[in-house]
Automatic annotation (TrEMBL):
Start and end residues of each Maestro/Maestro-like HEAT-repeats domain: 63-310
InterPro entries registered for this protein in UniProt: ARM-like, ARM-type_fold, HEAT_Maestro, Maestro_heat-like_prot
Family annotation (SUPFAM superfamilies): ARM repeat
Pfam families the UniProt entry points to: HEAT_MROH2B_C
Protein name (record): MROH1 protein
CC terms in the record's Gene Ontology section: cytoplasm
Domain of life: Eukaryota
Length: 315
């Protein structure tokens, strides 16, 4: 907040002096003191949220210095550097297209950060990616699409609600880049479908909202008009959801369009029988019940009901 206030004041009143200020601050990014690197990185990150860096031809200089902080020993510095790179989407959106490949690579590297025990860097990377996606070239994101989708998938079930929300929103945003090659991304949608449907019962309203968004975005790629219409009509942000009725109809459409997926859907739901959230455990049991109810006889042999009831189901 302090850095944002300083950036705002600098942008308004110190415009002509900013190039000299930036020049004098750059050496502190290599300071042996974490506090100096954190303070300067925070200031540069906020500065990138203003078009003044573009007006004064400072964008590339500040951006390159933020990119250079990705290997910093301090987690907070790495997180703030990614925040700055993501802020370019707000301060200079017209420049994102030009630097898209570089910015996307930085975000992907942030998600792969190996020294991030609390996932602060990964969270900032996902947030930054969500900001950038509206402005990048499609060809730049296509080459990274599958890697990003696979990388963020484990965060759907994170104990941290911020990570669940951010990863699910990002996944929904990625689907618009899959339209040209649905087969490539379709598998990722199938991998996440049960999780997204179960987390409609998430204890955190912001995660439920994220799931509604992601499922609406996934609908057109599902190859099932009935499911797509259900997601668009029943998962609007302003509409309350009768979960039992909804999941019953979802299972009906799934078994009509993808009966061969029964085993896979059941096994995925069984995983959530051990969820720490009671509503999600209950939703998983309900999900399986409706799947079995709606599967036709020809495909019902995928499920051994005796094993299922006894809890001895094997993958």
């Amino acid at each position: 907040t302090c850095a944002a206030s300083v950036r705002s004041a600098m942008a308004r009143h110190a415009g002509p002096r900013l190039p000299l200020i930036v020049k004098n601050l750059i050496p502190t990014l290599s300071s042996v003191f974490d506090s100096q690197r954190v303070t300067t990185t925070a200031f540069f990150a906020e500065l990138l949220g203003s078009n003044v860096v573009n007006d004064l031809m400072l964008l590339e200089t500040v951006m390159d210095n933020m990119t250079g902080r990705q290997k910093d020993a301090c987690t907070l510095v790495r997180m703030l550097a990614l925040r700055g790179l993501g802020n370019i989407a707000c301060g200079s959106p017209e420049k994102v297209r030009k630097h898209g490949a570089k910015l996307l690579a930085s975000m992907v590297n942030g998600m792969d950060d190996k020294d991030d025990p609390h996932n602060l860097v990964a969270l900032e990377a996902m947030s930054g990616l969500s900001k950038l996606l509206d402005h990048v070239e499609e060809r730049d994101i296509q080459s990274m699409l599958l890697h990003i989708a696979i990388r963020i998938r484990p965060f759907f079930d994170s104990e941290q609600p911020e990570l669940r929300q951010s990863s699910i929103v990002l996944f929904g945003s990625l689907t618009k880049f899959s339209q040209g090659d649905c087969e490539v991304f379709f598998e990722q949608i199938l991998n996440g479908l049960v999780t997204l449907l179960l987390h409609l019962q998430d204890p955190k309203p912001e995660v439920v909202k994220a799931c509604k968004f992601a499922l609406r975005m996934c609908g057109p790629s599902m190859g099932c008009e009935g499911l797509c219409e259900m997601f668009l009509n029943h998962l609007r942000e302003d509409r309350s959801l009768h979960y039992g009725e909804f999941i019953n109809n979802v299972c009906k459409h799934l078994m009509q369009s993808y009966p061969e997926m029964l085993h896979r859907l059941v096994v995925t739901n069984l995983f959530y029988f051990k969820s720490s959230w009671v509503d999600i455990r209950a939703a998983a049991a309900m999900f399986i019940g409706f799947l079995v109810l709606h599967v036709d006889e020809d495909h019902s042999q995928q499920v051994d009901l005796d094993q299922l009831i006894s809890g001895e189901w094997q993958r």
